[in-house]
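User: Please fill in residues for this 288-position structure.
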């Protein structure tokens, strides 16, 4: 198989299959999340697996992903991997998949990986951006790709409140009731509030996330930014460790998985941080 590193090629020869990693971006509005669902319920995983199966000449493909994004949530830098006995060039996996995918899902890169690579378990950190459109009038464009908030938001208040959430904490007050994570203790490496025209972007990087954690954080910060609660409320919610103290879960449309970090040994391709319409926004992860 072309495009193989010496390490990946050696491991492939030993185990008898090819492990391929892909970068994927998608608009989640039409899907019930990344993970494959029951028959008739659209998912990103099912669409990708069907497309890749065609590239593999009908041989079934089963994907593992870095982050199982929820219904209606987007990604500009999802990472997946699959094992296959079928030899194809990386260019063929990319172009063949994209020819067979719907227009709201794209494969952006492909790389042959060593057998010990795992898109989920090798990930060291994940990064999300939650995009708020702050204006009195609802947007006619990108209505399913941003969260509209008509209340004027004070970004400085939101920044002040966000500082208490950085670090290692018990985030039970920010997890969904149906969350299946074994531990609510997570480490937030950075949490920035960025302004880009009418957009307010919550940029957060952590070692891992609980179910609805980013959307619940966004809901608390928007409530504070609107002046409905004081800055101190963020700490109070965190310390209660009780979900119902944190108010309403923010809408999923504004949420994007924008980066997954792996050990340097894997040397995965890197693209600009998404989403596309925020391409002029600076990368503020220097403190991460």
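Assistant: Residues filled in for all 288 positions:
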């Amino acid at each position: 198989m072309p495009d193989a590193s010496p390490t990946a090629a050696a491991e492939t020869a030993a185990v008898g299959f090819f492990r391929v990693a892909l970068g994927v971006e998608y608009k989640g509005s039409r899907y019930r999340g990344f993970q494959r669902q029951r028959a008739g319920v659209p998912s990103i995983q099912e669409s990708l697996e069907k497309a890749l199966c065609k590239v593999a000449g009908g041989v079934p493909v089963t994907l593992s992903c870095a982050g199982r994004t929820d219904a209606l949530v987007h990604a500009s830098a999802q990472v997946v991997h699959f094992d296959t006995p079928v030899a194809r060039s990386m260019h063929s996996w990319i172009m063949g998949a994209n020819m067979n995918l719907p227009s709201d899902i794209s494969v952006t890169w492909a790389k042959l990986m060593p057998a010990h690579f795992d898109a989920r378990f090798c990930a060291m950190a994940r990064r999300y951006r939650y995009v708020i459109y702050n204006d009195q009038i609802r947007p006619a464009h990108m209505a399913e790709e941003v969260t509209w908030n008509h209340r004027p938001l004070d970004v400085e208040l939101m920044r002040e409140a966000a500082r208490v959430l950085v670090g290692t904490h018990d985030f039970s007050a920010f997890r969904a009731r149906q969350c299946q994570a074994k531990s609510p203790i997570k480490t937030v490496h950075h949490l920035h509030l960025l302004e880009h025209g009418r957009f307010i972007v919550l940029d957060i990087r952590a070692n891992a996330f609980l179910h609805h954690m980013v959307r619940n954080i966004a809901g608390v910060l928007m409530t504070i930014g609107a002046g409905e609660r004081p800055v101190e409320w963020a700490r109070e919610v965190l310390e209660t460790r009780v979900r119902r103290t944190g108010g309403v879960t923010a809408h999923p449309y504004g949420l994007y998985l924008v980066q997954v970090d792996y050990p340097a040994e894997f040397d995965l391709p890197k693209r600009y941080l998404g989403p596309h319409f925020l391409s002029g926004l600076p990368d503020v992860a220097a403190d991460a």
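For context: The chain has a mean pLDDT of 93.
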